[in-house]
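Me: I hope this is not a bother. Any chance you could explain this protein sequence and its structure tokens? It all follows right here:
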Amino acid sequence: MGLNPSYIWRSVFYSMPKLKEGCRCRVGDGSKIQIFHDAWLSKKLNPRIVSASNPYIEDQKVSFLLDMEGASWDPVVVKDLFNGRDQALIFSIPISTTRREDTMTWG
């Protein structure tokens, strides 16, 4: 931030954690979203995975949950790893056929 940041820059810097709380990820190709660490589900109150994390996939990206072509969710993987709530929310997210990048969105 420098030695003498302005009031505006200090305000922006210190408000970032609060801003991030209101952001969520929009799934594109799934290459940038962490399964267990990012808010990417469509649920307003809790957009994060609530299933117990698996140490083998703790740091995996959402793309790990897609089929080989990246065109749809892999039902075997999703059903094997997540509880019913998370499965339903994952399957409700449409996968882009244009392979766009993941993006951040507000709310």
